[in-house]
Write a structure and sequence with these properties.
single chain, 188 residues, alpha/beta, Rossmann fold, 5-stranded parallel sheet, two-stranded antiparallel ribbon, 7 helices, 9 strands, globular
Length: 188
């Protein structure tokens, strides 16, 4: 005796249990090691190259002024490998090291996320509304070796750098340059 509810019949308890059992019986092989950048992004890039997947944007960003940045899977893969090299070589980071990114939502924010996934570097995101005191706390608590921020937020970071013993490199996202900072755009 099932009664209709919004056009659907209620499932009997036996049907629910049967469905649950069928889900639990499904076994999938889990990879020992999984990396989104190489296992998904690079695979989709190769599918596009081979013509087995339609070329769609992997990333599409539009700001308030209508400026657009559009990257295919191939472009995002290429740029994220370059950003990974910047983090590894110019910043001297390696797998397991921590980096704090205090950035507004600019394309580089996503690019650095993928670069960190690719290299095994631990990304600690921070909102651009953090104060110098907030940044100091996060740098000290995380023992981050690198901080990435915009040219407008760099002065707040500079005011706390002397108290951060683990910080080895500072990376700026923007067009300008600053003493003691590496510029992401220049390094890319």
């Amino acid at each position: 005796p099932c009664r209709p509810f919004h056009g659907y019949n209620r499932l009997l308890t036996s049907q629910i249990i049967s469905h649950y059992d069928s889900i639990n019986q499904y076994k999938t092989a889990l990879p020992e090691y999984f990396n989104f950048a190489s296992d998904v992004l690079d695979e989709w890039s190769q599918l596009e190259k081979d013509g087995r997947k339609a070329a769609n944007p992997a990333f599409w960003w539009v700001n308030e002024e209508g400026e657009e940045v559009k990257w295919s899977f191939e472009e995002l893969g290429f740029l994220s490998r370059k950003a990974a090299n910047v983090l590894s070589e110019a910043c001297g980071l390696q797998r397991g090291d921590r980096v704090i990114a205090v950035l507004p939502r600019v394309p580089e924010w996503w690019l650095l996320n993928v670069a960190c996934m690719r290299t095994g570097i631990v990304l600690i995101p921070g909102t651009s509304q953090l104060t110098a005191k907030d940044v100091l706390y996060r740098l000290q608590a995380s023992k981050a070796k690198c901080i990435i921020t915009s040219d407008t937020l760099a002065p707040a970071v500079e005011s706390v750098v002397p108290d951060c013993q683990f910080l080895k490199s500072k990376l700026i996202v923007g067009k300008g340059s600053r003493d003691g900072w590496l510029n992401l755009q220049d390094l890319l």
